[in-house]
Design a protein that fits this description.
Layout: E1 2-5, H1 9-21, E2 34-40, E3 47-48, H2 52-68, E4 73-81, E5 98-105, E6 110-115, H3 121-127, E7 144-148, E8 153-158, E9 161-166, E10 172-179
Antiparallel strand pairs: 1-8, 2-3, 2-4, 4-10, 5-8, 5-10, 6-7, 6-9
Length: 181
């Protein structure tokens, strides 16, 4: 897992514009959360948001993403803003290569990584959704890693792991996926 810092100004401005000018969508990864899809190669044809503020910020966002993670193709970019009732299902093996999160507002969220080494790994990662006090658990005994998420930090890992975000109301981040070409 790569944990790092990034230039926050362009991401914060993009977040503010998305929330102000776009209608939130729903995505199965984030039940009951507000999601703003900006770019994806998952669909056929590929989707590229037509909002003027995205068109203006896209190259700067992509440059910063490539600086943090040296991968050739950005595959998916979405802004996710959680509510008090929303959850984030584990993400991992459906990503083509590498994925991660750029946290703008963590609000004491947690991130748990589960190794994808058996057919039951996804179920194990889903069980982490119900954890209310992850700081009390010995994660190494479970062969998992726990991170207390910090504002303006990025967390990336490969698709050999499931990442489960345990959000709080107001937790806001960019979900980004990469592909090796």
């Amino acid at each position: 897992m790569i944990v790092g810092k990034y230039k926050i100004d362009v991401f914060n401005k993009l977040k503010d514009d998305c929330i102000k000018y776009m209608s939130p969508e729903r995505d199965w990864h984030y039940p009951k959360a507000d999601m703003y899809l900006l770019y994806t190669l998952k669909n056929s044809p590929p989707y590229n948001c037509s909002a003027p503020f995205w068109r203006d910020a896209r190259e700067e966002i992509f440059t910063e993403l490539r600086r943090v993670v040296n991968k050739p193709t950005i595959y998916h970019v979405a802004l996710v803003r959680h509510t008090e009732n929303s959850i984030a299902l584990p993400i991992g093996d459906e990503c083509p290569s590498y994925y991660g999160f750029f946290f703008l507002e963590s609000n004491n969220a947690d991130l748990i990584n589960t190794k994808n080494d058996s057919e039951y790994s996804y179920q194990s990662a889903c069980k982490d959704l119900g954890v209310t006090h992850p700081h009390l658990i010995e994660w190494f005994e479970r062969d998992k890693r726990w991170h207390k998420v910090k504002d303006n930090s990025s967390y990336f890992c490969g698709n050999k792991f499931y990442s489960t975000v345990i959000p709080r109301g107001g937790t806001t981040y960019f979900h980004v996926e990469f592909r090796d070409d």
